[in-house]
Amino acid sequence: MQLERNEERLDPRAARSTRSHKQRAEKKSPVRTEFQRDRDRILHSKSFRRLKHKTQVFIAPEGDHFRTRLTHTLEVSQIARTIARALNMNEDLTEAIALGHDIGHTPFGHIGEKVMNDLTDFGFKHSEQSLRVVDRIEYHGKGLNLTDEVRNGILFHSKGMGPIYPKEISKLPDTLEGQIVRISDLIAYVNHDIDDALRAGVIIEKDIPVSSQRVLGKTFAKRIDTIVIDVINRSMENNLKTIFMSEEIQNELISLREFLYHRVYWRKETRESRDKIRKILVTIFEEIKKQPEKYVNPFPEPDPIEKRIIDFIAGMTDRYALNLYKKISLPIYIW
Ligand code: MG
Question: Is 225 buried (19+), middle (13-18) or exposed (0-12) by CB count in 10 A?
């Protein structure tokens, strides 16, 4: 069959949709591989569309040119597909994981994620929530019935401030395509967050560490190009045992990430808005707890109501949360 012949051309270490597994058996499509279908289901989901109004780093209403969670996702996908194609990996699988990786992200970026984590004893991680969205929340609680390869790539994409290569191999995705997305997420956000910080006037060009400028390049495009080409070459030299990066480039990427944490993510203004965002989300949580049936889906069953309230709040866009907060907190004539 034509679809299988297309996959025969891939590197032997690439994932094959014909060998993939789903929780519920389904009739195969005559024109799309299982990974293409997964990508399409993610792209057509409501949670995916809501990413357009969720903060990446800069609160979206501040300006139209800043990244949102949606444009971040598209940039990750584009970088990941470039690497996957160059390494003869499965580009459809790579794209599906990339488009789904942040689908469970909260409003207000990582500040929102931290508040969600503090609100209940269940804890909250956006990567786990992304898997929960595709497995148990989307499609009216039936889930999207994605392949195990896509689900695993979504769950293991996140690194936080941890090392680029974790000591335990069990913390890496099972497929090389999943590893490509994991590294592309970092390449995308470090570079576009610098670009947005420059746009916002939070930093200026000469603040960017000199060695990063020298090794990676002086512009946004050049920096991404240098890192992507390094990942492709080193992974090939490494005989595709893992998706790899040279130590020199790795060190520069880590130093740029640290630079961002200190100068952008943890700056004074962010700390101040953190308290305000916490107040907004806590107020919403307490209000919904008083009459959950008014807001919360009956699914996923049999999860406790507090977990479903978190599902609802985590699914909100920034503007939905702000509007709801106004309705809860202000007299009706000020809305
Ligand atoms: Mg991401």
Answer: middle
CATH of the domain at 152: 1.10.3210.10
Task: Please indicate, yes or no, if residue 143 is contained in any of the structural domains.
Answer: yes
Cα 102 to averaged position of ligand 1 atoms, centre (Å) = 5
Side-chain half-sphere of 24: how many Cα atoms within 13 Å? 7
**Residue 324, domain member (yes or no):** yes
Residue 80: Cβ within 10 Å count: 31
Whole-number Å distance, alpha carbon 334 to ligand 1 midpoint, is 36
- What is the 305 CA–ligand 1 centroid distance (Å)? 28
Q: State the Cα–Cα distance between residues 94 and 85, nearest whole angstrom.
A: 9
In a domain, residue 50? The reply is yes
Quote the longest CA-to-CA distance of the chain.
66
Mean pLDDT of 107-132: 95
**Cα 177 to ligand 1 centre (Å):** 15
Residue 110: domain span: 42-329
How much distance in Å is there from the Cα of 48 to the middle of ligand 1? Answer: 13
Question: How many domains are contained in the chain?
Answer: 1
| Per-residue pLDDT reduced to its tens digit, 261-284 | 999 998 888 888 899 999 999 999
Q: In this structure, is residue 313 part of a structural domain? A: yes
Dist. CA 13 → ligand 1 center (Å):
25
CA 56 to centroid of ligand 1, rounded, Å: 9
CA of 77 to the centre of ligand 1 (A): 10
Q: What is the pLDDT of residues 180-217, one digit of tens each?
A: 999 999 999 999 999 999 999 999 999 999 999 999 99
